[in-house]
Design brief:
4 strands, 177 residues, binds zinc ion, single chain, alpha+beta, two-stranded antiparallel ribbon
Length: 177
């Protein structure tokens, strides 16, 4: 389903200077994938055989508003897993496995945990055709991916980790840890 270009299509329309500024700020604030934690500039394509460049995802597509409550930073792998599903990667034993899909409910769980200041269900409801789903913890594949990126020392990444670890539903704590 996901096309060869961006999962959201090739064109993102920026309507005014404020939107441009917001997109620029958001790109700077999130130099890693909010779903799996992979940092910008990390090329895991060789290892997993799927592009990992960072892209911006819009939670609601109506008017595709470039406002922070509507934005998520996702690597191409996680982005494709949300839009297309059926994405396969090579695991550490070079075996091809299908990774679980990322639903909107999963994305909202992540947005609420990592970016609570911009988590706004009321705004989402204004621009969503269907009801805003109840948040749902992502499949463990994504939580384990965060653990694989423990070596990332980017300041922002460390700050987000510290913040999230303090919160009850810490993203990095695997069940049983
Ligand atoms: Zn990712
Ligand atoms: Zn998207």
């Amino acid at each position: 389903m996901a096309g060869q270009k961006s999962a959201e299509g090739p064109t993102v329309v920026i309507r005014n200077a404020r939107e441009r500024q917001t997109l620029g700020e958001f790109a700077t604030e999130w130099p890693f994938c909010m779903a799996c934690g992979i940092a910008a500039g990390t090329d895991e394509r060789q290892r997993m055989d799927h592009p990992r460049n960072l892209e911006i995802h819009h939670l609601t597509k109506i008017q595709r508003r470039h406002e922070k409550w509507n934005l998520m930073k996702l690597c191409k792998l996680c982005h494709d897993a949300h839009h297309g599903g059926g994405i396969t990667v090579l695991n550490s034993r070079r075996k091809r496995i299908e990774i679980p899909g990322l639903t909107l409910a999963n994305l909202l769980w992540i947005k609420r945990l990592l970016d609570p200041g911009n988590y706004d269900r009321q705004k989402m409801a204004m621009f969503m055709v269907r009801n805003v789903p109840v948040v749902r913890r992502p499949p463990s594949w994504y939580l384990e991916a965060w653990n694989r990126h423990r070596h990332c020392t980017h300041q922002r990444f460390l700050a987000i980790r510290a913040m999230a670890e303090k919160r009850q539903a810490g993203l990095y704590r695997r069940d049983g840890d």
